[in-house]
Design goal:
The protein has about 300 residues and is α/β, with parallel strands linked by helices. Helix content is about 30%, strand content about 25%. A hairpin with a 4-residue loop joins β11 and β12 (about 230).
Length: about 300
């Protein structure tokens, strides 16, 4: 929560320069509060796992958030019980007239396909276009980030010679960004992908800001300058055993998969994973939800527009 202080207190300027969130008495007095309406488009095949990971990060906050789960109608999930989907998920046709304070578009294991070859690509494009006028701030994750960067800005994804797999150190380029308030100088994020975006493509777009990178994992965080769209190429929401489960799954299939980097102590899969991204993950989702949704969304959600 922000610290509330008198309007003219000298500490206000000092704390703001130190990237500490302060709220003046004037702003606090005029601030209305209501639950945030958040929509999650879950494109992952293991929907229960993904929704649990995201809700865990979003729930550890003093903010009241009302979450709806969205699935694509043009693709039938083979890995989630149909009763779960019918009970807890909606489709785009059912919510297209509604407006939301925030939205998350997850990744999907389709990154080796061209975007146009993904069976639900036309539906996803329609949803991403809809977010321009119906969602205040949208967060795209991993393949969802690559899809969003391509659809909104024409930025391509590039194949990697080998799967990027592990937990990698990152640094913020925009250290004063509210998105990275409370972060250490170096923070860790899990990655699991076969494709990447290039920094030069992003820097060539004046409407985008490159916020954080990794020497090993490349581009991590990008946002639009109007703060309406965020893109991250990793998975800060991952559970401690997510990469282990992926690794052992592929080993059991006989696939050529390397041990995830910086994950098992001594790179020995018989050791339990070392979690070094939990605090940064919580800060990341809390900061996005607070500074780029709660603090800036219209009080009347119907006022959201292009």
């Amino acid at each position: 929560m922000p610290i509330r202080i008198p309007d003219s207190l000298p500490a206000t300027t000092i704390l703001e320069q130190e990237n500490i969130f302060v709220m003046t008495e004037y702003r606090a007095f005029h601030q209305d509060i209501r639950p945030l309406n958040l929509l999650i488009l879950n494109l992952m095949p293991t929907k229960v796992v993904t929704e649990t990971q995201l809700l865990r990060r979003l729930s550890n906050s003093p903010l009241q958030v009302q979450v709806e789960l969205l699935k694509t109608a043009s693709h039938v999930s083979q890995n989630t019980d149909a009763s779960h989907l019918s009970s807890f998920y909606t489709t785009f046709d059912a919510i297209r007239e509604k407006k939301y304070d925030g939205m998350i578009i997850t990744g999907a294991p389709v990154e080796n396909l061209d975007f146009a070859d993904v069976d639900y690509w036309p539906e996803l494009c329609e949803i991403m276009e809809w977010t321009r006028s119906h969602v205040h701030s949208t967060l795209h994750i991993c393949w969802g980030a690559q899809a969003g960067l391509f659809y909104h800005y024409g930025i391509p994804k590039y194949p990697l010679e080998r799967k990027l797999f592990g937990v990698f150190p990152h640094r913020a380029l925009k250290v004063q960004s509210p998105l990275f308030r409370g972060f250490d100088d170096v923070f860790y994020v899990p990655h699991s992908r076969y494709t990447e975006n290039h920094a030069e493509d992003i820097l060539a777009k004046p409407e985008l800001e490159l916020l954080a990178v990794s020497d090993q994992a490349g581009v991590f965080a990008v946002k639009s300058r109007d703060n309406r769209r965020f893109f991250i190429t990793g998975h800060p929401e991952y559970d401690p055993d997510t990469l282990a489960n992926e690794y052992f799954r592929d080993v059991n299939k006989g696939l050529d998969i390397q041990v995830p980097a910086n994950y098992f102590p001594d790179d020995d899969p018989s050791n339990p994973p070392l979690v070094r991204w939990r605090s940064a993950a919580q800060l990341f989702y809390s900061n996005w939800l607070n500074y780029y949704v709660y603090q800036t969304t219209p009080y009347d959600v119907r006022d959201i527009h292009n």
